[in-house]
């Protein structure tokens, strides 16, 4: 008879050695857990600012500014997936089912990928065009889905660190 601890170790090892494909098939996406609007205020709005502000700069971007723009472009790309997942907000389920929502979200993803490509090549003129398109997309979506209520009561922290580390009001 094998000791109980050895049997438990063998059982744990068998589970740990389960093929990755089987584990992946069992996994379901995690629920969003917050309203989509909270994602927009906390992630998308902040990341979009980090793309269109440097895009509008009339002076050449520094290496640090390019790195920050890259980070914000990546955050925008990732955030578009969250925008297609209903969260806990009152309007979330209706939003993600709306064809316009899906179209704007898909286009935002495309524009965010273009922003990342512009950053990768340090093409400030291209980044400017991408930033302009991003502003247009955000405004069009807000006009349909959140007219007059851009944050719907969800607010960002009132004082933001600037890129140079000092604090400034939003």
Short structural summary:
By secondary structure, the protein is an all-alpha fold. It has helices spanning about 5-15, 20-25, 35-55, 65-80, 90-95, 100-120, 125-145, and strands at about 160, 165-170. It is globular, with a radius of gyration of 21 Å.
Number of strands: 2
Give the DSSP E fraction (strand runs of 2 or more residues).
under 5%
CA distance, first residue to last residue: 69 Å
Order of strands, widest sheet = 1-2
What class would the helix/strand composition place it in? mainly alpha
- List segments where confidence is low: pLDDT < 50 over at least 5 consecutive residues: none
Mean pLDDT over the full residue set: 80
Description:
This protein is globular. The longest helix is centred in the middle third of the chain and has 22 residues. The protein contains seven helices and two strands, in the order αααααααββ. The protein starts with a helix and ends with a strand. With 170 residues, the chain is an all-alpha fold. Strand 1 and strand 2 form a beta hairpin. A two-stranded antiparallel ribbon has the order 1-2. The protein has a single domain, classed as Four Helix Bundle (Hemerythrin (Met), subunit A).
SSE map:
Blueprint: H1 4-16, H2 20-26, H3 36-55, H4 63-82, H5 92-97, H6 99-120, H7 124-145, E1 160-161, E2 167-168
Antiparallel strand pairs: 1-2
């Amino acid at each position: 008879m094998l000791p109980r601890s050895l049997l438990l170790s063998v059982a744990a090892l068998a589970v740990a050695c389960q093929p990755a494909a089987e584990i992946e098939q069992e996994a379901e996406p995690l629920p969003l857990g917050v309203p989509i609007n909270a994602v927009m205020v906390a992630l998308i709005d902040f990341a979009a600012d980090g793309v269109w502000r440097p895009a509008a700069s009339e002076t050449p971007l520094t290496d640090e500014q390019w790195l920050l723009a890259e980070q914000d472009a990546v955050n925008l790309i990732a955030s578009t997936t969250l925008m297609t997942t209903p969260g806990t907000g009152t309007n979330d389920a209706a939003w993600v089912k709306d064809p316009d929502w899906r179209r704007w979200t898909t286009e935002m993803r495309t524009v965010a990928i273009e922003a990342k490509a512009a950053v990768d090549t340090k093409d400030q003129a291209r980044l400017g065009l991408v930033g302009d398109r991003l502003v247009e997309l955000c405004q069009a979506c807000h006009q349909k889905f959140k007219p007059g209520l851009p944050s719907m009561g969800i607010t960002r922290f009132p004082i933001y660190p600037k890129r140079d580390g000092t604090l400034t009001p939003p």
